[in-house]
Design goal:
Belongs to the themis family. The chain has 644 residues and is of the alpha+beta class. Helices cover 17% and strands 32% of the residues.
Length: 644
């Protein structure tokens, strides 16, 4: 087959003969363009093979041959078309007359000229219909007597038989639909007429979309038929040609089989590594892989090591067979306690440092000492100093652990439990109180307890000879992530399998020849993968890892600076009174006077707290004089130094 323009090939193509293989004989490339424009291929190289699988009519451009104006017709246009001339053309009027008289049809006959005719002071355009009635002698010249219809009037014209055309006969035929006209090769590029369109004559120029398969293209290639390339049909000589179709691992995952699947890597995404595993360096172009299918179970746990200056991060598979033991959790603030609280599950903690309660905000905000035991009851609200409501954590103070005598225990049982209110920004330090020595599997632990959770690996995974989790003093299981992974092995090392997440490591592969066999027994699996810091923090941004909102900002403290600022703003104070107040502040307070006031103030403030409880620190006295400073003895020392 000789090379033809792509548009001509498509218009003459019979859809029943698809698919057809074409070779590009003259390529086209738009300078500065990308390879696709609006999803259509715009660049083809000479020698490219195209396997046409489908041709779809995209639109029809209607052209006025007289004015060259164009308009688009929808593919479902309902008008009817009638051809104004036949495919047979005649160079002169004499040829037209001779062909008519020799045929079974006699004069008169209708015809049209493809060019303008100027005669007897008139111009006959190419879209006007003429009726040839007879051949007569006019002014001594053999002429064709023709009738031209103009605005309801008939004009007689005498055209010499030597008049050059080309001319085309017009034969009345049955009206045809748009698709019928386009499917008839005999009507290609003929002048048509349609009563529903504003033009008397028109030419239809359809535009098609070619759907084809090309080498190294993952998806169907869409090529417009108007692309200016010449193609050659090489279907007969290309039966042995196999078009290579690349696949993404995400596409392999979506189609779900058949497995196992032998593949070869074509491209590795240029991104920062996500795992610190030795097999990651083997994922290079040309490496053959065997994909065994979807990993089960589909969930994993994000874990971080504890007890080291630089933590290490891991992604632990749900198939991990090691044994874990729970460790007490640590909570730096009351807000963290609220995040770990689960209704119906008791949460008991012990304070690990002394913390003063913010009585300026609310008298019920209790101070804590090292060793105080609390049971978390849940969230609540309390009134602040400015009259607004504050979110608090409601706790219940527990008795000391075993070691007290039975008399004290009986006395405490008769007392009502003391309620403790802690603001969510309370900067305490707590450790969970627990006595659980059971050994859990990862599946049981995540099913029975909420995350995050502190654990210690007490027995390594037998299927993982180099289980790194046993070397840490503790692990923090942070989040449970559900994401499909593919079980993959290297063709050179089929004895060890690993799991690849197509979402974050989407390799481009191509199916290789040959069907791999399933290994005997269960697949040896690497159930623990160490993560890079970059990928770890990327995982923490996932919606599954988003925990509660950030803790509330603590209220501004109303310390001495605010009190002094308030005292300096008071007007009308005499200098002698100010001097007397300063001298009074520099003098130490007698202990005899201070202790009774402290006892009275402390008993009224902490009425619910037992007076002599082991390990509890008495609260600070509430000063009545706003001008008193908290560092009286430091100011006395400074005063004596200045005096000396």
């Amino acid at each position: 087959m000789e090379p033809v323009p792509l548009q001509d090939f498509v218009r003459a193509l019979d859809p029943e003969t698809l698919p057809r293989v074409l070779r590009v004989c003259s390529g086209v490339y738009f300078e500065g363009s990308i390879y696709e424009i609006s999803g259509n291929e715009c660049c083809l190289s000479t020698g490219d093979l195209i396997k046409v699988t489908q041709v779809r009519l995209q639109k029809v451009v209607c052209e006025n041959p007289r004015t060259s104006q164009t308009m688009e017709l929808p593919c479902n246009f309902q008008g009817y078309f009638t051809p104004l001339n036949t495919p047979q053309s005649y160079e002169t009027l004499e040829e037209l007359v001779s062909a008519t008289t020799q045929s079974s049809k006699q004069l008169p006959t209708c015809f049209m000229s493809t060019h303008r005719i100027v005669t007897e002071g008139r111009v006959v355009t190419e879209d006007q219909l003429l009726m040839l009635e007879a051949v007569v002698m006019h002014l001594g010249i053999r002429c064709a007597r023709c009738v031209l219809g103009l605005e309801g009037q008939q004009v007689i014209l005498h055209l010499p038989l030597s008049q050059k055309g080309p001319f085309r006969k017009w034969e009345p035929s049955a009206p045809r639909t748009l698709l019928q006209v386009l499917q008839d090769p005999a009507l290609k590029d003929l002048v048509l007429t349609c009563p529903t369109l504003p033009w008397h004559s028109l030419i239809l120029r359809p535009q098609y979309e070619i759907q084809a398969i090309m080498h190294m293209r993952r998806t169907i290639v869409k090529i417009p038929s108007t692309l200016e390339v010449d193609v050659e049909d090489v279907t007969a000589s290309s039966q042995h040609v196999h078009f290579i179709k690349p696949l993404l691992l995400s596409e392999v995952l979506a189609r779900q089989g058949p497995f196992p699947l032998s593949t070869e890597i074509l491209e590795v995404p240029e991104r920062r590594p996500i795992f610190l595993s030795p097999w990651l360096g083997s994922l290079q172009k040309g490496q053959r892989l065997c994909i065994y299918g979807l990993a089960s179970p589909p969930w994993r746990v994000l874990a971080s090591s504890k007890g080291r200056k630089v933590p290490r991060h891991f992604l632990v598979s749900g198939a991990y067979q090691g044994k874990l033991r729970r460790r007490p959790r640590e909570f730096p603030t009351a807000y963290d306690l609220l995040g770990a609280f689960q209704p119906g599950q008791p949460l008991r903690v012990v304070a690990t440092k002394d913390c003063e309660g913010e009585r300026e905000e609310n008298p019920e905000f209790t101070s804590l000492a090292v060793g105080d035991r609390l049971e978390v009851l849940g969230p609540g609200q309390a009134h602040g100093a400015q009259g607004n409501d504050m979110d608090v954590l409601v706790c219940q103070r527990l008795s000391d652990q075993a070691g007290e005598d039975e008399e004290e225990e009986c006395e405490e049982e008769t007392e009502s439990p003391e309620r403790v209110l802690l603001p969510l920004h309370f900067p305490g330090s707590f450790v969970e109180e627990m006595s659980d020595s059971r050994r859990y599997s990862l599946a049981d632990l995540t099913a029975q307890f909420s995350l995050p959770c502190e654990v210690k690996v007490v027995a390594k995974d037998s299927s993982h000879p180099t289980d790194p989790l046993t070397s840490f003093l503790g692990l923090r299981l942070e989040e449970k992530i559900t994401e499909p992974f593919l079980v993959v092995s290297l063709d050179s090392e089929p004895g060890m399998c690993f799991e690849i997440p197509p979402r974050w490591l989407d390799l481009t592969v191509v199916e290789a020849r040959g069907q791999p066999d399933w290994p005997e027994g269960s697949l040896p699996m690497a159930t623990v993968e160490e993560l890079t810091d970059t990928f770890y923090y990327r995982l923490r941004k996932l919606p599954a890892c988003e925990i509660q909102a950030p803790p509330p900002r603590p209220p501004k403290s109303q310390g001495l600076s605010k009190q002094r600022r308030h005292s300096t703003q008071e007007g009308g104070v005499k200098s002698s009174q100010v001097l007397g107040l300063q001298q009074h502040a520099l003098l130490p307070k007698p202990k005899v006077k201070t202790l009774p006031a402290f006892t009275k103030d402390g008993s009224s403030t902490y009425s619910k707290i037992p007076a002599h409880r082991k390990g509890h620190r008495p609260a600070k006295p509430q000063r009545q004089d706003p001008d008193d400073d908290e560092h009286d003895y430091e100011e006395i020392l400074e005063h004596f130094q200045k005096t000396i």
